[in-house]
Amino acid sequence: MPSHRQMPPGPHPVAFVGAGPGDPGLLTLNALHALQRAEVILHDRLASPAVLALANPDAQLIETGKTGFAPSTPQGDINTLIVAHARRGMRVVRLKSGDPAIFSRLDEEIAACDAAGLPWTILPGITAASAAAAALGQSLTRRDRNSALRLLTGHDVNGFAEQDWVALARPGTVAAIYMGKKTARFLQGRLLMHGADPATPVTVVENASRPGQRIVATALATLPADLDAAALGGPAITMLGLAPRKAVAALPELQKERA
Fold it and tell me: Which residues form the Tetrapyrrole methylase domain (predicted)?
């Protein structure tokens, strides 16, 4: 019987890593170290080039993207790739935009590792809601306004996602809606149907924290039309109940004056 020191090493833990919203400066140190040690990185389409540029230059990069209402890599294929590379003894990073525990099918991938007898670890990341709120100069919670924050998905595997519309329609509600660009009209209709004030502020932040960040400040009554006019092409998060602070909203105009 070989001694403990002679036993062959087990597989490296699969690291489920939060890439943050896109600005590489918002990566955690643990995430950076995992990227620098990785031999295989399976990343989603929202992982920014600036973050991927920090990875081990010898690592194999595999895009395993998912896009709402568009062709996506099947989850079963992603699970298979994770398990196959980890079983080969590779240091595998599953890189997910934002935080890996928020709307990223983390449980399914952990279940695949468990079924294969593979160890794993989770390295949290800054989620898009936090980055968007920072871009607006707003707090996600505030005394006398909202004592709760809702994180919602605009769609699920069955299409448009149904929510507790009565609760969402109440004055003072703040919710961050992920993957909500294409569901703006649905969201507007459901909220107005359940008594939401048409003047409720809604702000959509595209490319939060990235160089191409854009902020579309609107109201529930005009949300779909304003989004159509803005023609957003990048990843965006919808912030229900929040408007940009006046100083933040005026910043582009101030920059033009100084130019």
Answer: 14-223
